[in-house]
Amino acid sequence: MQQTIQYIRKELAPYYHETEITGFAQMIMDRVFGLSYTQLILEKDRVFDKDEKAKVAAIVDRLKKHEPIQYILGVTEFYGLQLVVKPGVLIPRPETEELVEWICKTEVSERPKIIDIGTGSGCIALALKNEITNAEVWAVDTSEEALTIASENARINKLEIAFKHADILKWQERSWPQFDVIVSNPPYVMEREKKQMEANVLEHEPELALFVSDTDPLIFYRTIALFASKQLNESGYLFFEINENLGEEMVALVNELGFRSIEIRRDLNNKNRMLRCKK
After folding, report:
1. Which of 36, 138, 150, 41 is nearest to 88 (CA)?
2. Distances (CA, A) of 124 to 48, 85, 204
């Protein structure tokens, strides 16, 4: 096994930082061969056969092309859940786990009705349902492919979610119930910020879920905040994951629409990443 790990390190050294490569090696051993960190130590002298080595080589080749490891392995972990991820949805990020944690620590009604707008893989909706077991959770997306993946994740994790296919930009064209919590991690990366992004994101993750125009970067936030002003119950909460560079603009937006108790929270990287406000 040590030989195989050394092979991974050597082949990927020109492409990734050493810490990333260590993570890749552990994920490959875990997801492909079912070997935990403890087993890696106990079975360090294990010799992989020809087929096993071929599997590793194929993964390494894809990593050299900057394909995300989560897409290669087809799974990722989010807030204690195992989720299927494919190129049709964004890969869940640690900062989104922080948003989920903030929601879980917020006092809401005893049996809250929650909607996750732009659910993608379903990570937020599923994590909230798993943590707030008596909640009724809706998950909305304009992408049928995303909803298929999210529904698969709900089945895998045995969580009941009401999935809805809808374009939130046209929310007024249909009727909606009232909610106690509205949450969204919508597209918020401006086109001009593309040059700052990693190749594995730009080349592989869905642009529809990432980017907004430079001329109107708050289009989804404005629309969802308007939706929330109508569809939130009194004293209900609106949560957003936000662009770190648009915190002031976000506060001004929700303040103008009459929301109160507006709070911006920083993520573990000390970036303005989350907003909470109250109707």
Report:
1. 150
2. 38, 14, 21
- CATH class entry, domain 87-278: alpha beta
DSSP secondary structure, the chain, as one string: -HHHHHHHHHHHTTTS-HHHHHHHHHHHHHHHH---HHHHHHTTT----HHHHHHHHHHHHHHHTT--HHHHHSEEEETTEEEE--TTSPPP-HHHHHHHHHHHTS---SS-EEEEES-TTSHHHHHHHHHSTT-EEEEEES-HHHHHHHHHHHHHHT---EEEE--GGGGGGS----EEEEEE----EEGGGGGGS-HHHHHHS-GGGTEE-SS-TTHHHHHHHHHHHHHEEEEEEEEEE--TT-HHHHHHHHHHTT-EEEEEEE-TTS-EEEEEEE-
Please report where in the chains the tokens 């087929």 appear, as a residue.
51
Whose CA is closest to 116, among 243, 238, 264? Answer: 238
What is the number of H-type helices and E-type strands within the chain? 11, 11
Per-residue pLDDT for 217 more than 90?
A: no
pLDDT surpasses 90 at 36: no
Lowest mean pLDDT: which of 153-162, 169-178, 207-216? 207-216
